[in-house]
Structures
1.
Amino acid sequence: MAEAAKSDLFVGVDLGGTKILAGVFSPQLKLLQTAKLSTKSSRGFAAVVDRVARCVRDAVDEADMNLKQVRAIGIGAPGAIEPETGEVIFAPNLQWKDAPLKKELEKQLEIPVFVENDCNACALGVQEVELKGRTRNLLGIFLGTGIGGGLIIDGRVYRGFNGTAGELGHMVIQVGGPKCGCGNNGCFEALASRTALFREIQTRVKAGEKTILTDLLGGELDDLKSGDLRKAIRKGDKLVEKVVEGAAEYTGIAVANLINILNPEVVVLGGGVIDALEDEMMSIIVETALDYAMPGTTKGIEILASKLGDNAGITGGAVLARQRAK
């Protein structure tokens, strides 16, 4: 890297309930190096901040750089965020309330820190790096342990009136459906997240249905991962195939609802479930969305799977850092 560019590095951080991923990026947003740590949220806010700082230092060190060469850090954090102050207003996965993430990290690292909701950050990464900024209206839907959304309207992140826009996972799609972690029943998240998929498979196994997953992992399916579902389907497992198809159909209905409401140029699906099961889910999602959307609303709209995978969050963090550092 040219000497002049060395003070213009950006670090993107994806802070989740179970892991912290940090990435060092060039001024052109090329990923140079990553580092990963477990979050250990049960230790409390201060301990997690220490671990985020450590993860940033590790990533910079692995890139053979030093912190003085980093211009800014962007963090995608779960929950409701106050973007100006960098406070995490409420993050149930981390058990945080009014947590001054920006302030405390800047104390430790002495570098400007900018904080955004994690799914908004992912949407930023997709828009700016994967799609090269060619769309100004994008909807990101991210299926992982839960389901979240990121909205970019007219080229800017849309946060809504009080900063909580994008909670797509809590649209009720099936009245009287399964209980969701938010307290409601029948939410999109309770029907199509990784947690929902695993729960449905475990329930059906307890009811006597057969799956090769029990041969691989034991009767309780304790160590089940999204990739195991893909392997099972490719070995002809009808139970797993049926459950995954159901989740894909619910996702397609959610996409149709959101197209009717928002009419974005592009709908991007990402997260661990899509990473693992893109081939099994995307065609069903697209077909269902086209079936359920109001005629005419889908004209010219792209529905696609993100190729950034696990790096969407850190990429979005770096985009945020570069944008806000200006």
Note: Confidence is low (pLDDT under 50) at residues 1-5.
2.
Amino acid sequence: MFDSPQKILILGGTKEAAQLAKTLVAQGHDVTTSLAGITNAPAPVEGKVRIGGYSKGFISGAMGLAEYLEDECFDQLIDATHPFAKQISENAIIAAKMSSVPLEIKTRSPWLKHKNDLWIEVTSLEEAVSVIPKDAKVFLALGSKYIDVFESRPDVNFIVRMVDEPYLPLRLAKHKLILGKPYTKIEQEKALLMEHSITYLVCRNSGGIGSYAKIEAARELKIPVILIIQN
């Protein structure tokens, strides 16, 4: 990819980003992977890791990222985030221009709709909340910071799956919490959806194969998916 050793910042959080970091480190590059810090114990990544955002006081995320690129003398910026991480990707474009650090875009491709998918595509969490029917049994496959907005729907029963225990109790009126990562096999996800009599699935279009089984399970069970296509 590069003719000589480079100092590279990868905006990560995907399996593809972790694999890219491993490859670049093996090639002799000085690699730092930037993670948002949403997961308490992220999977190990080759090279250095930076956790947290770039906003500081009145400094925006884009300006903060540009300052970091300049202060740490990076040669290359690579955006290898999720397809729904629109704000991060926009910040990367702005920061690259401000710092004159070259940007390579390797964002993961989003899931594409299958002819049998029952998708309701929305562009925000608020829109996702608004389209849920009364008395629905909803499976929320979202991170902890995306859950509170659903507290405005006390008429809905929620099953919430998270990787980590939330710092504070969920404020949903009717819910059950399940801790764990998404299953990789369709039959496991189908069994979970059927066990809880789920009528709607809510998730983000994160792309990749790691959590796609729930989409396939919903398809086979003819469960509508409220799919958030932006962060």
Note: The mean pLDDT is 91.
